[in-house]
Design brief:
Length: 359
């Protein structure tokens, strides 16, 4: 049964939805915990709008980039802030791949390639609010067969749970009535000193990854698995994010910073394990990321243009936020050696990511 969302959003949204639909159908949901954390979400894109975390002195800051109104999201150069991304997060080369001998053709929304679910990606639709209370909300969306070229009718849920241990947990689930490919993530842009407070170069990052997947000039994985050892990509011992981001390195030059999929070290497939830790020496805030996914896409917001003025009234500039997108490897449908992203009818895709804050 659909519950009434706790609060009407004061903002409109789009897709197959007109602006008017969006005005009437979008809503805000507010979660809070006993530690003083507050999370605001919207059903527009099953999206984190705001994530307020105390620091060691008890000062509160919003640690994710975003806007105060849906028109902010609609006008933004970056449509993905905080949103659920899919059906296939990141890139599929030429928007095409073969599925059981059949050629599949998806939207090409970034040059020749398919990025983040294409023109009708999950970030740009209104999800239904299935259930809601003070510490959880579950969104559901059904993507009809052929939208953006994906086979089958796909039913998706994204559930956010905020507990009293500083954790925001995200559970993703999906089923399809035809075989398809799936890869869901969340695209929050974090700055642990507070959104809009400048470079994240001094945040320290630990990544539990011995290798990453290098990309070609179109940001498509070449298919190689590259060891991080003795390279700027080695975060196995924590170091400032900015320490090597200007190093002379072909991969950093292609992406203008970090924008790469790291292959997570796992004790067993699909286990929920610590994948990343970010520490902000200035505020004392720490973010730990656990995930069941095989990869994490570490992105230093290289493409933020500065044209977008965020809710703090300051331009969102390159490298003033980081993303840790827990997911399968980009372009897996064309890379038989990467872990499978197939979803068969009768199966349920399930992944979990935990963002754990301490201060
Ligand atoms: C991609 C970037 C892209 C960004 C868009 C990231 O997941 O890897 O290349 O610019 O999303 O928001």
């Amino acid at each position: 049964m659909t519950k009434n969302p706790s609060e009407k959003a004061e903002f409109p949204v789009s897709e197959n939805f007109t602006d008017n639909d969006i005005q009437t159908k979008s809503c805000l949901i507010k979660l809070s915990n006993e530690q003083g954390m507050r999370v605001v979400l919207t059903n527009y894109g099953a999206r984190i709008v705001s994530l307020i975390v105390p620091d060691e002195k008890g000062n509160l800051a919003d640690v994710v980039l975003g806007y105060n109104s849906i028109s902010g999201y609609l006008k933004s150069d970056e449509p993905y802030f905080g949103a659920t991304i899919g059906p296939y997060a990141n890139r599929i080369a030429k928007g095409s791949f073969e599925l059981n001998g059949r050629a599949i053709k998806l939207d090409q929304n970034e040059g020749d390639n398919h990025l983040h679910g294409g023109k009708n990606g999950l970030h740009d639709v209104i999800w239904e609010v299935l259930a809601e209370d003070k510490q959880r909300v579950k969104f559901e969306y059904t993507l009809k067969e052929s939208v953006s070229g994906y086979p089958g009718n796909l039913t998706l849920t994204t559930e956010f749970i905020l507990n009293n241990r500083g954790e925001l947990k995200i559970h993703y689930q999906a089923t399809s009535d035809k075989v398809t490919v799936i890869n869901l993530t969340n695209h929050a842009y974090f700055n642990l000193s507070g959104a809009g407070s400048g470079s994240i170069g001094n945040h320290h990052l630990y990544l539990n990854a011995d290798a990453f997947t290098p990309v070609d000039p179109e940001m498509i994985p070449t298919g190689e698995i590259q060891e991080v050892d003795q390279s700027p990509f080695d975060f196995r011992v924590e170091k400032p994010i900015g320490k090597d981001w200007n190093a002379e390195d072909e991969q950093l030059a292609i992406a203008d910073g970090f924008d790469h999929n790291f292959i997570l070290n796992k004790s067993s497939k699909d286990s929920l394990e610590l994948s990343a830790r970010v520490t902000d020496p200035e505020s004392g805030r720490v973010l730990e990321v656990e995930t069941t996914a095989p990869g994490i896409h570490f992105y230093t917001a290289n493409a933020l243009s500065g044209k977008d003025i965020g809710r703090e009234g300051v331009p969102y500039l390159p490298r003033t936020a980081f993303c840790l997108e827990t997911q399968h490897f980009p372009d897996s449908p064309n890379k038989p050696l990467f872990p499978s992203v197939l979803l068969e009818p009768g199966q349920t895709y399930k992944t979990t990511t935990v963002f754990r804050f301490s201060w």
